[in-house]
Amino acid sequence: MTKNNRKPYGYWKERSNVKDGLERVTKSLGHFPSWIDLENEGEWGIIQGIRDYHGGSITRFREEMGHVPKHNTKPENYWPVWMNMKSELEAVITALGHFPTQPELVNLNRQDLHNAIFRHHNGLNAVRERMGYELERFSPGHWNLDTIKKELTIVAKKLGHFPIDRELREMGYGGMLSAIEDNYDGLNSLRRQMGYTLAQKPKKYWKDWNNAELEMTRIATEIGHIPTTTDLRNFEQDSLVTCLRLYHGGVTAARERIRQKLGIPTEKEQLESLLEGYVQGV
């Protein structure tokens, strides 16, 4: 649920305010939140505040505030033991429904497990292989057109839609994606060839500002900042870009509107603050 209470200018610049917000969410959830928890709770102000003003590390806040996850309180020499690491990783696999990527481990606040895998167990691919999960180690001719189409059909059924580049990379299909780009004119060309279309929104869907805002904040959570026109096009949201221009004053105006709602100063406000400080000799 998105939080609608707008904070005053400069609110999230204060580290104490961010801590207050995190403590409030912690009490509500019963544990210190991960990035995913903050997104699910609609705490966009906290998310943007940490990323814009406080180095982008939620882990540092957790440590400062004394919230040590139970999985971090391990005895000495716990992580070098294969079965200990494997048990922890299997719990993550069960929760996600698939073998995790590096970003997923970090987003789940499992830096401890992430670090153990790379420090003691030769990295994620080595662990994946040892646990019996398939690796993308194929012969040079493996990714032919028939194989690619079969694999894309499987992925599309799993996701409920034809995948975009980012989804394929996160699922470990970097090699297949490279073959598509090098040999088959790119993913969009192959999508059309296979008869898939981009998921269509209802008529005038983006004319409703709430829908446009929801999509922009979703993308913002993934990339760490409010998306620009280029970002939106990279997420294949050309129709959103067009409708923002037609109905909401353009991408720049939409970005500023979201900044204001999150309590983050607009570019104009930042400039005014700098000028004011200059005049006052700050």
Textual characterization of the structure:
The protein is mainly α. It folds into 4 domains: 11-68; 71-130, no CATH class; 145-193; 209-279. It has 17 helices and no strands. The chain has helices at residues 15-29, 35-40, 44-53, 58-64, 82-96, 102-107, 111-120, 124-130, 145-159, 165-170, 174-183, 187-193, 209-223, 229-234, 238-247, 251-262, 267-279. The model has no long low-confidence stretch (mean pLDDT 78).
List strands and helices in order, with pairings.
Blueprint: H1 15-29, H2 35-40, H3 44-53, H4 58-64, H5 82-96, H6 102-107, H7 111-120, H8 124-130, H9 145-159, H10 165-170, H11 174-183, H12 187-193, H13 209-223, H14 229-234, H15 238-247, H16 251-262, H17 267-279
SSE arrangement, N to C: HHHHHHHHHHHHHHHHH
The overall pLDDT average reads 78
Distance between the termini: 39 Å
Largest sheet: none
Number of helices: 17
What is shown here, in short?
The protein is an all-alpha fold. The protein has 4 domains: 11-68; 71-130, no CATH class; 145-193; 209-279.
Please describe the structure with a list of short key phrases separated by commas or semicolons:
about 280 residues, mainly alpha, 4 domains, 17 helices, about 60% helix
